[in-house]
């Protein structure tokens, strides 16, 4: 009797491929990642990889989307305490080095070209811009979008460039105490930035010009 893969078997294979792909792509990126190593780590043949995902690039995107979904579940949209939201963003990036590496590999590979999931990813960030605008009491315009981008940079850059953090702040930043000090500083800086952006947006006229 010929054996056929059941839906449960298919789901298990897909999960194993995503897990193996996460390790492979975090270490080697899209260009350097190899399908044969991913298949071997998952215990399947290469044809299964293409059968489930179609291409190496699509497998990478599936891996990254799964990692980002875990990240998003632990980090809701900005609320009233924006500084603490940036602090939690800082914590999440420090704790999830795999996500940081995958995101940086994606940036190196695609540069400024559209991503396969461009529209869906844009919608996620649009929701964050809207949430931040509500906190500031302003319309969700390009200024709020740039503020969000800057806040994300505050929270993510130290983990994305740990060597720069060490060179600028000193080796203490790599200790638990130094990490806590940097987090507290980033939270205060984010609070000050949002307060300034809020006053500017609320007090300015159209196009950011001062009121008459």
Topology:
Blueprint: H1 7-32, H2 35-42, H3 46-53, H4 56-74, H5 82-95, H6 97-110, H7 118-136, H8 142-160, H9 162-169, H10 176-203
Helix pairs in contact: 1-2, 1-4, 1-6, 3-4, 4-6, 5-8, 5-10, 8-10
Keywords: DNA-binding
Protein name: HTH-type transcriptional repressor NicS
GO molecular function, one term: DNA binding
Describe the protein.
The chain is mainly α. The protein has two domains: 55 residues, Homeodomain-like (Arc Repressor Mutant, subunit A, Orthogonal Bundle); 134 residues, Orthogonal Bundle (Tetracycline Repressor, domain 2), CATH 1.10.357. Helices cover 77% and strands 0% of the residues. The chain is built from ten helices and no strands. Helix 1 runs antiparallel to helix 2, helix 3 crosses helix 4 and helix 5 packs parallel to helix 8. The longest helix is centred in the C-terminal third of the chain and has 28 residues. GO terms for molecular function: DNA binding.
């Amino acid at each position: 009797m010929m054996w056929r893969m059941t839906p449960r078997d298919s789901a298990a294979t897909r999960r194993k491929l995503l897990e193996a792909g996460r390790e492979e792509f975090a270490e080697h990126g899209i260009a350097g990642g190899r399908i044969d190593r991913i298949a071997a780590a998952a215990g399947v043949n290469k044809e299964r990889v293409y059968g489930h995902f179609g291409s190496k690039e699509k497998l990478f995107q599936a891996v990254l989307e799964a990692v980002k979904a875990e990240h998003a579940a632990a980090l809701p949209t900005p609320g009233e305490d924006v500084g603490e939201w940036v602090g939690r963003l800082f914590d999440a990036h420090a704790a999830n080095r795999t996500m940081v590496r995958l995101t940086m590999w994606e940036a190196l590979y695609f540069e400024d070209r559209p991503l396969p999931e461009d529209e869906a990813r844009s919608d996620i960030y649009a929701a964050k811009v809207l949430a931040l605008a509500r906190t500031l009491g302003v319309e969700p315009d390009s200024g709020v979008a740039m503020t969000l981008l800057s806040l994300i940079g505050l929270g993510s850059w130290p983990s994305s460039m740990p060597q720069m953090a060490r060179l600028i702040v000193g080796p203490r930043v790599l200790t638990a105490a130094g990490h806590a000090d940097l987090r507290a500083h980033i939270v205060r800086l984010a609070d000050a930035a949002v307060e300034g952006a809020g006053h500017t947006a609320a007090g300015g006229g159209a196009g950011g010009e001062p009121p008459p």
